[in-house]
Design a protein that fits this description.
Shape: globular
CATH topology: Rossmann fold
Strand order of the largest sheet: 3-2-1-4-5-6-9
Structural class: alpha/beta
Order of helices and strands: EHEHEHEHHEHEEEHEHH
CATH class: Alpha Beta
CATH superfamily: NAD(P)-binding Rossmann-like Domain
CATH architecture: 3-Layer(aba) Sandwich
Strand content: 15-25%
Number of helices: 9
Helix content: 40-55%
Protein backbone atom coordinates (compact mmCIF):
# COMPACT_ATOMS: atom_id res chain seq x y z
CA UNK A 1 0.00 0.00 0.00
CA UNK A 2 1.14 3.61 -0.53
CA UNK A 3 2.29 5.56 2.52
CA UNK A 4 1.45 9.09 3.62
CA UNK A 5 3.48 11.16 6.09
CA UNK A 6 1.54 13.66 8.19
CA UNK A 7 3.81 16.35 9.65
CA UNK A 8 1.81 17.89 12.48
CA UNK A 9 -0.50 14.96 13.09
CA UNK A 10 -1.71 16.17 16.50
CA UNK A 11 -3.53 19.04 14.78
CA UNK A 12 -7.23 18.65 13.99
CA UNK A 13 -6.53 19.00 10.27
CA UNK A 14 -3.66 16.51 10.42
CA UNK A 15 -5.85 13.92 12.16
CA UNK A 16 -8.65 14.42 9.61
CA UNK A 17 -6.20 13.95 6.71
CA UNK A 18 -4.83 10.80 8.35
CA UNK A 19 -8.31 9.30 8.74
CA UNK A 20 -9.32 10.05 5.16
CA UNK A 21 -6.17 8.64 3.57
CA UNK A 22 -6.29 5.57 5.83
CA UNK A 23 -9.84 4.97 4.59
CA UNK A 24 -8.41 5.05 1.05
CA UNK A 25 -5.97 2.24 1.94
CA UNK A 26 -2.89 4.29 2.69
CA UNK A 27 -0.45 3.32 5.39
CA UNK A 28 0.07 6.31 7.67
CA UNK A 29 3.12 7.83 9.35
CA UNK A 30 2.07 10.22 12.11
CA UNK A 31 4.74 12.75 13.10
CA UNK A 32 4.58 15.27 15.94
CA UNK A 33 6.57 16.64 18.85
CA UNK A 34 4.49 14.69 21.41
CA UNK A 35 3.69 11.24 20.05
CA UNK A 36 1.82 10.21 23.20
CA UNK A 37 -1.02 12.39 21.96
CA UNK A 38 -1.18 10.24 18.81
CA UNK A 39 -1.60 6.81 20.40
CA UNK A 40 -5.41 6.90 20.33
CA UNK A 41 -5.42 8.01 16.68
CA UNK A 42 -2.88 5.32 15.77
CA UNK A 43 -4.97 2.59 17.37
CA UNK A 44 -8.16 3.86 15.78
CA UNK A 45 -6.64 3.92 12.28
CA UNK A 46 -5.16 0.44 12.67
CA UNK A 47 -8.38 -1.13 13.96
CA UNK A 48 -10.88 0.77 11.84
CA UNK A 49 -9.09 0.58 8.49
CA UNK A 50 -6.59 -2.26 8.93
CA UNK A 51 -3.80 0.07 7.91
CA UNK A 52 -0.24 0.18 9.15
CA UNK A 53 0.27 3.25 11.32
CA UNK A 54 3.61 4.33 12.78
CA UNK A 55 4.49 7.16 15.16
CA UNK A 56 7.55 9.38 14.75
CA UNK A 57 8.84 12.18 16.94
CA UNK A 58 9.23 15.39 14.96
CA UNK A 59 9.95 18.92 16.14
CA UNK A 60 9.30 21.55 13.47
CA UNK A 61 11.73 24.06 14.95
CA UNK A 62 14.56 21.62 15.68
CA UNK A 63 15.80 22.28 12.17
CA UNK A 64 19.03 20.31 12.32
CA UNK A 65 17.18 17.13 13.32
CA UNK A 66 15.03 17.05 10.17
CA UNK A 67 17.42 15.16 7.91
CA UNK A 68 17.92 12.49 10.58
CA UNK A 69 14.16 12.27 11.14
CA UNK A 70 13.49 11.67 7.46
CA UNK A 71 16.32 9.17 7.23
CA UNK A 72 14.65 7.01 9.87
CA UNK A 73 11.31 6.77 8.08
CA UNK A 74 10.65 3.23 6.85
CA UNK A 75 9.37 3.06 4.25
CA UNK A 76 9.85 6.50 2.75
CA UNK A 77 6.43 8.11 2.21
CA UNK A 78 4.80 8.39 -1.20
CA UNK A 79 2.94 11.51 -0.06
CA UNK A 80 4.17 14.08 2.46
CA UNK A 81 1.78 16.59 3.98
CA UNK A 82 3.06 19.59 5.95
CA UNK A 83 0.18 20.67 8.15
CA UNK A 84 1.79 21.99 11.31
CA UNK A 85 1.47 25.65 12.20
CA UNK A 86 1.32 28.16 15.02
CA UNK A 87 -0.84 31.23 15.51
CA UNK A 88 -1.17 33.57 18.49
CA UNK A 89 -2.79 36.99 18.84
CA UNK A 90 -0.91 39.41 16.57
CA UNK A 91 -0.35 42.04 19.26
CA UNK A 92 1.03 39.44 21.67
CA UNK A 93 3.39 38.19 18.97
CA UNK A 94 4.53 41.71 18.05
CA UNK A 95 5.49 42.47 21.67
CA UNK A 96 7.49 39.28 22.19
CA UNK A 97 10.70 38.28 20.42
CA UNK A 98 10.18 34.64 21.40
CA UNK A 99 6.62 34.65 20.02
CA UNK A 100 7.77 36.37 16.84
CA UNK A 101 10.47 33.76 16.29
CA UNK A 102 8.10 30.91 17.12
CA UNK A 103 5.57 32.20 14.59
CA UNK A 104 8.12 32.57 11.80
CA UNK A 105 10.10 29.44 12.56
CA UNK A 106 7.08 27.16 12.88
CA UNK A 107 5.10 28.45 9.91
CA UNK A 108 8.00 29.04 7.54
CA UNK A 109 11.53 27.96 8.49
CA UNK A 110 10.59 24.57 9.94
CA UNK A 111 8.36 23.77 7.00
CA UNK A 112 11.07 24.71 4.52
CA UNK A 113 13.85 22.70 6.15
CA UNK A 114 11.88 19.45 6.32
CA UNK A 115 10.39 19.84 2.84
CA UNK A 116 13.83 20.57 1.36
CA UNK A 117 14.95 17.19 2.68
CA UNK A 118 11.88 15.40 1.34
CA UNK A 119 12.09 17.20 -2.01
CA UNK A 120 15.69 16.10 -2.52
CA UNK A 121 14.71 12.44 -2.01
CA UNK A 122 11.65 12.69 -4.27
CA UNK A 123 13.63 14.42 -7.02
CA UNK A 124 16.20 11.62 -7.07
CA UNK A 125 13.51 8.94 -7.22
CA UNK A 126 11.29 10.99 -9.58
CA UNK A 127 8.38 9.88 -7.45
CA UNK A 128 6.27 11.40 -4.67
CA UNK A 129 3.84 14.20 -3.86
CA UNK A 130 4.35 17.15 -1.52
CA UNK A 131 1.35 18.95 -0.04
CA UNK A 132 1.62 22.11 2.06
CA UNK A 133 -1.18 23.63 4.10
CA UNK A 134 -0.64 27.38 3.85
CA UNK A 135 -3.20 30.16 4.44
CA UNK A 136 -5.13 32.91 2.70
CA UNK A 137 -3.64 35.14 5.42
CA UNK A 138 -0.47 35.17 3.35
CA UNK A 139 -2.07 36.82 0.32
CA UNK A 140 -1.92 40.38 1.66
CA UNK A 141 -0.59 41.80 4.90
CA UNK A 142 -3.41 42.92 7.18
CA UNK A 143 -3.01 44.67 10.51
CA UNK A 144 -4.90 41.96 12.38
CA UNK A 145 -2.46 39.13 11.57
CA UNK A 146 0.50 40.45 9.56
CA UNK A 147 3.09 38.42 11.48
CA UNK A 148 1.39 35.06 10.98
CA UNK A 149 0.37 36.15 7.49
CA UNK A 150 3.90 37.11 6.49
CA UNK A 151 5.21 33.68 7.51
CA UNK A 152 2.47 31.99 5.51
CA UNK A 153 3.16 34.30 2.56
CA UNK A 154 6.73 33.06 2.60
CA UNK A 155 5.55 29.45 2.77
CA UNK A 156 3.18 29.93 -0.16
CA UNK A 157 6.00 31.47 -2.23
CA UNK A 158 8.30 28.62 -1.24
CA UNK A 159 5.77 26.00 -2.37
CA UNK A 160 5.32 27.85 -5.66
CA UNK A 161 9.05 27.86 -6.32
CA UNK A 162 9.42 24.23 -5.26
CA UNK A 163 6.57 23.27 -7.59
CA UNK A 164 8.35 24.99 -10.45
CA UNK A 165 11.65 23.29 -9.60
CA UNK A 166 10.26 19.77 -9.18
CA UNK A 167 8.02 19.85 -12.25
CA UNK A 168 10.91 18.55 -14.35
CA UNK A 169 11.14 15.56 -12.00
CA UNK A 170 7.43 14.78 -12.23
CA UNK A 171 6.81 15.67 -8.58
CA UNK A 172 3.51 17.47 -7.82
CA UNK A 173 3.75 20.19 -5.17
CA UNK A 174 0.29 21.21 -3.99
CA UNK A 175 -0.62 24.35 -2.04
CA UNK A 176 -3.81 24.15 0.03
CA UNK A 177 -5.30 27.49 1.13
CA UNK A 178 -7.94 27.19 3.82
CA UNK A 179 -9.73 30.28 4.99
CA UNK A 180 -11.08 30.03 8.51
CA UNK A 181 -11.04 26.49 9.91
CA UNK A 182 -12.86 25.40 13.04
CA UNK A 183 -10.00 23.90 15.07
CA UNK A 184 -8.52 24.11 18.55
CA UNK A 185 -6.16 26.81 17.26
CA UNK A 186 -9.13 29.07 16.37
CA UNK A 187 -11.65 28.06 19.05
CA UNK A 188 -11.19 31.39 20.86
CA UNK A 189 -12.19 33.33 17.74
CA UNK A 190 -15.68 34.22 16.53
CA UNK A 191 -15.56 32.84 13.00
CA UNK A 192 -18.18 33.54 10.30
CA UNK A 193 -20.00 30.26 9.73
CA UNK A 194 -20.32 30.63 5.95
CA UNK A 195 -16.58 31.21 5.51
CA UNK A 196 -15.41 28.55 7.96
CA UNK A 197 -14.43 25.02 6.96
CA UNK A 198 -14.21 21.92 9.12
CA UNK A 199 -11.01 19.86 9.35
CA UNK A 200 -12.82 17.15 7.40
CA UNK A 201 -13.53 19.56 4.55
CA UNK A 202 -9.84 20.47 4.42
CA UNK A 203 -8.97 16.76 4.32
CA UNK A 204 -11.37 16.16 1.43
CA UNK A 205 -9.79 19.08 -0.43
CA UNK A 206 -6.32 17.63 0.15
CA UNK A 207 -7.32 14.21 -1.14
CA UNK A 208 -9.02 15.58 -4.27
CA UNK A 209 -6.03 17.82 -5.00
CA UNK A 210 -3.75 14.81 -4.62
CA UNK A 211 -5.84 12.73 -7.01
CA UNK A 212 -5.97 15.50 -9.63
CA UNK A 213 -2.38 16.70 -9.10
CA UNK A 214 -3.59 20.25 -8.72
CA UNK A 215 -1.35 23.22 -8.01
CA UNK A 216 -3.08 25.69 -5.69
CA UNK A 217 -6.48 24.99 -4.18
CA UNK A 218 -8.77 27.06 -1.97
CA UNK A 219 -10.74 24.85 0.43
CA UNK A 220 -13.85 26.97 -0.06
CA UNK A 221 -13.90 28.27 -3.63
CA UNK A 222 -15.15 31.74 -2.80
CA UNK A 223 -12.00 32.55 -0.80
CA UNK A 224 -10.23 32.86 -4.15
CA UNK A 225 -12.46 35.77 -5.11
CA UNK A 226 -12.51 37.32 -1.64
CA UNK A 227 -8.73 37.46 -1.60
CA UNK A 228 -8.63 38.68 -5.20
CA UNK A 229 -10.77 41.67 -4.18
CA UNK A 230 -8.62 42.32 -1.10
CA UNK A 231 -5.43 42.25 -3.20
CA UNK A 232 -6.90 44.76 -5.66
CA UNK A 233 -7.80 47.41 -3.07
CA UNK A 234 -5.46 50.39 -3.62
CA UNK A 235 -2.91 50.82 -0.87
CA UNK A 236 -4.08 54.39 -0.20
CA UNK A 237 -7.48 52.96 0.77
CA UNK A 238 -6.33 49.63 2.19
CA UNK A 239 -4.11 51.15 4.88
CA UNK A 240 -7.11 52.98 6.30
CA UNK A 241 -9.18 49.79 6.58
CA UNK A 242 -9.28 47.82 9.82
CA UNK A 243 -8.83 44.33 8.42
Amino acid sequence: MPTILILGATSDIGAAIARLFASKKFDVQLAARDTTRLITLKNDLSIRYGTRCDLYTFDAIDFFSHADFYGKLQPKPDVSVCVFGYMNENEDVAKSVSETLKTIQTNYTGAVTILNTIAEDYALKKKGTIIGISSVAGERGRQSNYLYGSAKAGFTAYLSGLRNKLFQNGIPVITILPGFVNTRMTEHLKLPKLLTASPEEVAQCVYKAFQKKQNTVYVKWYWKWIMCIIRLIPESIFKRMKL
